[in-house]
Amino acid sequence: MSRLHPALERVTDRIIERSRASRSAYLALMAEEAERHADRNAKMPCSNLAHGFAAAGEDKQAIATRAGPNIGIISAYNDTISAHQPYGAYPPRLKVYAREVGATAQVAGATPAMCDGVTQGADGMELSLFSRDVIALATAVGLSHHMYDAVALLGICDKIVPGLLMGSLRFGWLPAMFVPSGPMPSGIPNKEKQAVRQLYAEGKVGRAELLESEAKSYHSPGTCTFYGTANSNQMMMELMGLHLPGAAFVQPGTPLRQALDRAAIHRLAAITREGNDYRPLAQCVDEKAVINAAVGLLATGGSTNHAIHIPAFARAAGVIIDWTDLDELSSAVPLLAHVYPNGAGDVNHFHAAGGIGFVVGELLKAGLAHDDILTVGSPEGTQGLAEYAREPWLDADRLNWRDVGESGDPSMLRPASDPFQPDGGMRLVTGNLGRACFKTSAVTPDRYTIEAPCRIFADQKDVAAAFKAGELDRDVVVVVRFQGPRANGMPELHALTPMLGVLQDKGYKVALVTDGRMSGASGKVPAAIHVSPEALGGGPLSLLQDGDVVRLCARDGTLSTTADLSTRTPAPPPPPASGTGREIFAMFRLGADEAEKGGSAMMAAAGL
Predict the structure, then answer these.
(1) Burial class for 24, CB neighbours closer than 10 Å (0-12, 13-18, 19+)
(2) 454: annotated binding-site residue?
(3) Would you say 157 is a known binding-site residue?
(4) Could you tell me which residues belong to the region Disordered (predicted)?
(5) pTM of this prediction?
(6) Whether residue 431 is found in the same domain as residue 345
């Protein structure tokens, strides 16, 4: 591996120093917990243990006598999310794979799993971010039985992977591995889908045509194929070494997928503390692994949602990372991938062109990733990210790995020496309106700077009404406030993208500024998102008025207004919403911390 890039080295040293106390406290707790649960059968009362294996069938005797490691399965299976539908068939197969190596497996628990694609623009989206805390809590409940020597995490999509990781890190003395199910086959070309969406926003096609187009895109079991939050999750888990190498984008139902699933369980059984290659999750997820996740996100133009998720799951491991760190990394990490919505091809095309293995290899050669991390997928007696610069394949039905080689499609994947752009495309913008994120990798450079009078909204439905009435047909900065974690759960505002895209295509200078989120699938329109502090509680966005000139500039990192905010009082927030269960999530809203810390009520309450 090449010498570390100075920016990577600088940010790494800063995060290690900043995290020294919290990381030490976390590792001390994990060491204490490992000792307390070292011999789970001997320390567990017989009645408790009998309850735990009562329904284990042919595995009863092995669990009772601790004949081999027992793997706990935490599953986010449901039939509504296409990515998670394959998981319904996983537990029986994983139990068979475990028995092949003298181990056992039990479903330890299930977590909720909601799809932001289903709830976009709907009331349920206001539960979305906090579903991550619920998933983390559900993971902890499942693992609290202390019946397990390792953990198989079955989850893929938006809040699910961060939530599973946050929960399992509190049981970090156990080895853990994510077992993905893979993306669905490619549907209609992404440009065609995007074009129909915009035609619908313009009123030129009806709902029937729109639904037909969407159903041709999202059409079968597997992860949605655009490079949004779900697929960014998968990339990050590989950059952190928490998958088997190359496992992310192998499609469901294929022989290679099944071989990877089998190998994952065999590997989990081999890295428990009973063996010779103990790899606890607490040791795998350290400062360097977290930085690798961030670097991978920047190098591939991944979802902006991870500007919130990375700080949240890092905190669960005692690691403190902020947007200044991401911004500095972004200035040094080149953009190596153009995957829809940043490019034309989807994750299947990305994988075929060399995928994550190619990206890892290029980052290591450029000194832009840490090789010296403890991964779950490196062979016994070794460690390091270099193993993830390879791709899996079946050699006469036997799972093996091989070098990726050069990019198979330079329009989608490029080497670090000839990137799509020299930086990672995620900028921190700051000023008298707060701190926010701007994803430049999805925006053409001629739109990096927008300065225009603003129009204020407190609800995305009001934006749609103004758009339809023609009130936004001008240069405008659309400000949607009271969308932060404490206000309404910080929903994604992806439904605004087609409308603002129409205005942009008409030749207007348009930008979005919000304390809410945008989807990992969003792009095209300049946006300052996750504005912190949020409007609720007197953040600067609450002081803006219609007509104030707002400047958003990715080039100089500015988010500001020329208006004098010092003489104003905050606008009143809208009343708390109810229905769709939103009222029972009030405790999460009341306790949530700021977006830059991860927007988590659970982590704030725990003092982490």
Answers:
(1) exposed
(2) no
(3) yes
(4) 561-581
(5) 0.95
(6) no
